[in-house]
Each structure stands twice: as C-alpha cells, then as structure tokens.
C-alpha cells in the first residue's frame, strides 16, 4: 500500500567553495519528518564528499586546478527520490580532466536508501536479465566497449531511476574508452515487469 504523502519534496542547492573547487549540494527542506530530512541530506553530502576523495585516488594527485561537483534530480514523485552526482576534476599537466559519477535513490517517506536488489522480488535472477538487456543495447547502439572487458551487470550495479526507466551506468574507462563518456543503459520498467517488486521504487512507477 502506497503512502498518502506522495508530493515531490522541495530541494534547494547549497554552494560550497574550497580554493578552486566548487560543490553544488542538494538539500531537501521543509520535510514533515526532520529525521528523514537529516538522513537523506547526510547521505547526499557524503556521496559528494566521497566522489571528491575518489578523484585524488583515481588521478593519483594531491592537487587540482579545477574541481566542480554537480547534481541532477532524476525522479521526485510517489515518495521516490533519485538523484545523480558528478564530479569533474582537472590537474595541471594532465591531458584532460576526469568525471566520476554516483547516484542515490530514496524513499522520502521513510528515509530508506535503495540498492539495486531492492527493486526486484526476492530470489529472482535480475542480474542475468539486466546483463542480457545491457548486452543487447551494446550491440544495437554499437557501443565501443573494450574487447577484453566482459560486459556484465553486478548485483550492486550503479543505477538511478528516471520516470518509468531504470538506468544502469558505468564509470569512465570501466567498459568504454574515455571519448565515449559515461556509458548509460536505460531499461524501461515494462521490460522487467515480471521481476519487479511492485512496492519497490521502480514498481511504484508502473501504471496502476
């Protein structure tokens, strides 16, 4: 049974600057449950902070001349809030900068953060089905994947929800060359309907 409070949450952007770094941080405000508001906002702030830390590890440097962290709300309805975060950083002397991506999906009534498995019914083989669908898109769209890298979907694959679509994605260099950008694979909910948990975040997006 769906909750009675299903209006979109209100989101504001807080800006933090640190030297050459600029961080655009989403915060939900005016929520009827202060605990949920604090929990969701803390998780989003942590995601942004950890992306920044990963940049230093990925590029093996201790200094960037430019860093910008942004976000994009993908879903904000039916108590489901799905948001992506990107962090671009450039260090002097490098051929180009690097963009990293992360995402979070919440139930904003309870504050629950969803993992990929939470979208599906218990004990269904969602990994095989998602891998099959991603491979089909790779072939149909002629995505230039590395020949030596198998294209598979992990049980904890990164994802976000946009409207009635599950979007899986990989990091730069993970399965494709840099020039291709971050590879994303949108999968309409109807292609997964027999596997979805109807009370899960993607199941809620299906027409009733």
Question: Could you explain how this protein is built, in words?
Answer:
This protein is flat. Strand 4 and strand 5 form a beta hairpin. The model is unreliable at 1-5 (pLDDT under 50). It is of the alpha+beta class and 208 residues long. It is built from two helices and eight strands. 20% of the residues lie in helices and 31% in strands. The relative contact order is 0.14. The strands form two sheets. Strands 1-2-3-4-5 form a five-stranded mixed sheet, with helices on one face.
Quick summary of this structure?
By secondary structure, the chain is of the alpha+beta class. It has helices at residues 34-59, 126-141; strands spanning 10-18, 21-29, 66-77, 80-90, 98-107, 159-162, 165-169, 184-188. Strand 2, helix 1 and strand 3 (66-77) form a beta-alpha-beta unit.
Give the H and E element order.
Answer: EEHEEEHEEE
- Roughly what is the average pLDDT, rounded to an integer? 93
> What structural class results from the helix and strand content?
alpha+beta
What is the tally of helical segments? 2
Distance between the termini: 12 Å
- Fraction of helical residues: 10-25%
Topology of this structure?
Blueprint: E1 10-18, E2 21-29, H1 34-59, E3 66-77, E4 80-90, E5 98-107, H2 126-141, E6 159-162, E7 165-169, E8 184-188
Parallel strand pairs: 2-3
Antiparallel strand pairs: 1-2, 3-4, 4-5, 6-7, 7-8
